[in-house]
Predict the 3D structure of the following.
Amino acid sequence: MTSEWWRTAAIYQIYPRSFADANGDGMGDLAGITSRLGDLQELGIDAIWLSPFFTSPQRDAGYDVADYCDVDPRFGTLADFDAMLAEAHARGIRVIIDLVPNHSSDRHEWFQAALAAAPGSAERARYLFRDGLGPDGDVPPNNWESVFGGPAWTRVTEADGTPGQWYLHLFDSSQPDFDWTNEEVREEFRRILRFWLDRGVDGFRVDVAHGLVKAEGLPDWTPPADAGSMGGAGGTGASGVTLEPEISDEPGDHAPYWGQDGVHEIYRDWRAVLDEYPGERILAAEAWVDPLPRVAKWVRPDEMHQAFNFAYLETPWDAAALRTVIDASLEAFGDVGAPSTWVLSNHDVVRHATRLSVTEANPQGHGLGPESKGLPSFEAGLRRARAATALMLALPGSAYVYQGEELGLPEVIHLPDDARQDPTWFRTGGERYGRDGCRVPLPWEADAPNYGFGPAGDPWLPQPDEWRELARDRQRGVPGSTLSMYRLALGLRREHALGAGTLEWLPGFDDAVVAFRNGSVVVVANTGASPVELPAGDVLLASGDLEGRTLPTDTTVWLRA
Ligand code: NOJ
């Protein structure tokens, strides 16, 4: 395994609930992951990132952690984790796990102790308890709203039965925020990092890495009127990503709970812990802030290694916008000596086989459902998604692939209301569909029960009938299938060292075309309505059928330069 592997790695996100279910309880598990690692090795990825599998009541699908150093029985045991890790390493696949430091579950023993203890106690000081406002204390301490909708404060009942203090939860009421000014919290997370590093993990994806520190005094904040919710993913509350190079850190320009300067010293401290271990262990930030130079602060040389490029994820399928975000990404991350990352889908956003073609506004976190308008046909959505993926996997840096996108899975629109589990759905009274549509269990074998997701039982979210044709065994080895395209792209990416390459824009193309050279490969993507002539060069990869030497709409090719 080479050094600084993370600069160029293709990292595959596993959402354990929905990947593979070995024990037949309808929910994926660690043994299921172990059994399918061969498929991922064949796909050609360098690392996997696992969303949480820790002890949790699953109010937010495991992002509500009750015990950071154990495996939830639904997912298996620590021994299953060790077996999975060993098998991954034996196959040359590194393993990144999810760390959730902004909040715990309300079932965490610290929070239970805080509830039992008195206001002002050391137990309460690990979280953000405050007295309410007004004569009876029945007004929340400030006006902050939960990312999932509704107020960010919940009032507790004190041990003597009287209405008591309030605690802050930027997400669900079952996810109380830690107080990161408390040294005990800091020490506990160093312990948690070491626990997993000692077990051999290769790194951590850090959940809500922009949220741990809140502005002093917890001042009121009213987001700008045009703000999207950015909700499900732990978003900024800002109006979407802007690409201006200036870093605006004016007080009042940003929510007092996102991207406070104080978070950086925490990551410098963690970096020192990771650097005690051999083998280039990494930290990857989920930091939904903008603009990109601000995100780059998370990956300065003594902080994290990578930050998710949500600006790229949020860019529409538009050549000018793509050129702008690619330039801005390479510049912002390059300025601090970090690789850019690239990502199109994850467990918080509408799958890109649908999202890139939706014609109606769809704020991040709202999701799609039966009432949503402007949805593409399956074929049109997939065609564009494949073109977008082929473009992304040719870019220099590290790329993330979310489970199921290699099968071309679309967002599941028609989930029954009573199957939905995302707290966003409940906290908005069904006004926002939330994120369940991108979390439906994977189809592996077309003719097996649950398409091979598990041996029996109903999957925790129902799989649509149309997924039968998308099952992995229907696509494996089939020329032109989405799975084959991903495998080819990942193989060529490695062969031509595209992750370590340099991007050079190619002039002379129509405005609707994104065209660049990365080392020995020329990439041409047509986002426009009209076909365009291809330049000379052997075709290494095409995301869709070519018409002779013309590149149809929503198609990307790689040519040997
Ligand atoms: C971001 C995670 O990706 C999302 O799934 C989760 O709900 C929030 N953070 C809260 O932990």
Remarks:
- Residues 183-199 form the longest helix (17 residues).
